[in-house]
Amino acid sequence: MNASFAVELRGVLKEYVRAEYSVRALDNISLDIKAGEFFCLMGPSGSGKSTLLHLVAGIDKPTDGRVSVLGQDLSELTDRELARWRSENIGYVFQTFNLIPVLTALENVELPLLLTGLRRKDRLQRARTALEIVGLADRLDHRPQQLSGGQEQRVAIARALVTDPSIILADEPTGELDAAAADDVLSILKILNQRHGKTIIMVTHDPRARSYARKSSYLDKGLLGPMPGEA
Amino acid sequence: MGRHLLLVLKNLRRNKRRTFLTVVSTSLSVCLVGMLVAVYGALYARDVSEESAQRLVTRHKVSLGQVMPMYYRSRIAAIDGVRNVVPMNWFGGTYIDSRPENMFARFAVDQEEIFNIYSELKVPADQLEAFQRDRQAIAIGSSVAERTGLKLGQRITLVGDIYQFAPELTVRAIFEGPDDFQSFFHQKYLEEGLRDQPGGGSHAGVFALRLRSADDASRVAMEVDEMFRNAPEPTKTETEAAFQLSFITQLGNVKLFLLAIAAAIVFTMLMVSANTVAMSVRERIREIGVLKTLGFDSASVLGLILAEALLISIVGGILGTLLVPGVGALAVQVMGPFIPTLVLPTWGIAVCILTALAVGLCSSAVPATVASRTNIVDALRHAG
After folding, report:
1. C-alpha–C-alpha distance, residues B178 and B176, integer Å
2. Which residues of chain A make contact with B297, given a CB cutoff of 8 A?
3. Cβ neighbours of B295 in A, within 8 Å
């Protein structure tokens, strides 16, 4: 296990078994991602990108192989320990934002801090700071339905970084956004990587997004390979 | 859980109409349960006053429909420990018509002794004297006066149904007391009215006994019944509270009846509440996946959903309990003589709140458990 790697996957296999059929989403994947990296995983829809991200986040388990994140073998943790570990180490940005509609932007960002021992005053202060970082200091009391798609995604990024995690996982973060909003979001992720030292792992099938990352790989039919045309 | 309260409250405001209707439904159900508890309390768990504890009631051993000869009175009065004995005959009959406000208990009694036996019934001295002096006098309780509008000096006619006699009476006294939805007129007047009829009226439906001490109750009751054990009209003597209870049991298994209604209400409340919680959880499967991705563990998710259901239940339970006194007062107005008071006893408040809490817990246990165990990836893929 190498301490300089944020993520180490060894021989990871993920199979979804149903009554009538089984699907191999990931096939013997081995992958190292360095700490502080902005890593982009590309591939067509259904290639297994999100599945790989779920394994790194510890919200799904591999059928076979080992997933080690920040030096922690995730298979050694119970569900309860895994939840706690995730709250401390992982920030997650979804394609569809997944903000809680009844909460304001500030309350949505405060949500992960409810799991910490912080007092409400400190929680709100940290949530405000996170929203300032993503440029939404003037939208604290807006509910998700009062925000544009790009603003919603920025709130989601603020929610992902408010606990100061080492790794931010972004699952198609620009998938629902227009070009301008997508550029804003990608720029924020780049800043988080460059200025704040966060390891960013982004899966996307948007070729423009790749230009923001320092390293990229291509996943197709569950197999890792070089980017098409770069072999 | 305190730090999650904000989330719980916000979730309850997600669908305000549904939350409001669930609270209203819970309130009404708890209010109904409270009313049943109050009825149970009025029938079975009334506080026995000091005066009541000193009273016994002697009736025919076979049934209340059979009467006892009047000479029993002097025999009973001779027993050691008995202070007063008064014969009482349920007259029944109709005053004007059978509307609830005109229905009140009517007894033919010994006018000299009745207020000695029931000393908690207070009547002004001049009215008592007027009542005792006038053979055609009737003394009515203040609740009767209030509901019927009868006043002192007013003449009324009762049309008998048990007895073929229509006493013409004058209101001479209005008494007050804990059980004042009744009236008394002279036994002698009844006897006169029935003089020419077979059997006459010189008998007693029951004898009310006032003892010197409540401690003598069981001994005196045994002595009375032993005295008439081989007589043509054997007796059954019991405390006033037991007599009232035996009167109620003639209606059937009232306890089972009340329990069955309460169970039906609670079951309906449970179904409504369970459906609401299940619907609420189903709509939020994806959000539950998000919460778990953020680091909320299964126990936290379970707690959040249980807390929502319990909060609705407790608010509904409190509101429902608060409704009981008002609805009880309304019911007494309608029921009148059948249930003179409907008050939720202290233990009844606990029953109402605990029922609401139990319903909240039971209705949310399954949906909350299912939600807490939901696989994160499946939840995030949920389209609902």
Report:
1. 7
2. 79-80, 83-84
3. 83-84, 86-88, 112, 115
8 Å CB contact between B1 and B293 = no
Provide the token pair at B374.
Answer: 């939901």
Tell me which residues of chain A have a pLDDT lower than 70: 1-3, 230-231
Q: Do B294 and A60 touch (CB under 8 A)?
A: no
Residue B158 has pLDDT above 80, yes or no: yes
Residue B199 has a pLDDT of 67
Chain B nearest-CA residue for A117: B3
Q: Return d(Cα A215, Cα A222) in angstroms, integer.
A: 19
Give the pLDDT band of residue B339 (cuts 50, 70, 90). low
Q: What is the pLDDT of residue B39?
A: 87
Q: Give me the pLDDT at residue B251, please.
A: 72
Task: Tell which residue, B326, B269, B248, has the closest CA to residue B40.
Answer: B248
* Per-domain residue ranges of chain A: 37-62+78-225
What pLDDT, on the 0 to 100 scale, is given for residue B264? Answer: 94
Interface confidence, given as ipTM, is 0.93
pLDDT, tens digit, 9 for 90 and up, residues B284-331: 999 999 999 999 999 999 999 999 999 999 999 999 999 999 998 888
Q: What count of CB pairs under 8 Å joins A to B? A: 64
With contact defined as beta carbons under 8 Å apart, do B123 and B109 qualify? no
Chain A interface, best mutation among B1, B3, B10, B16, by max A CB count within 10 A: B3
Comparison of pLDDT for B146 and B251, the residue scoring more: B146
Tokens at residue B83, please? 């202070």
Interface test mutation site (partner A, options B4, B302, B380, B382, max chain A beta carbons within 10 A): B380
CATH of domain A37-62+78-225: 3.40.50.300
Query: Which residues of chain B are within 8 Å of residue A103 when distances are taken between CB atoms?
Result: 7, 10
Domain map (residue ranges) of chain B = 2-46+253-381, 62-233
Nearest to B91 by CA among B172, B189, B199: B189
Cα-flanking dihedrals φ and ψ of residue B82, to 5°? -90, 125
For residues A69 and A1, what is the distance between their CA atoms, to the nearest angstrom?
A: 10
Question: Does the distance separating the beta carbons of B380 and A107 come in below 8 Å?
Answer: no
- In this prediction, residues B48-67 reach a mean pLDDT of 87
**pLDDT beyond 80 at B47:** no
- In the numeric block, which tokens belong to residue B45? 């768990």
Distance separating alpha carbons of residues A104 and A140, to the nearest angstrom: 7
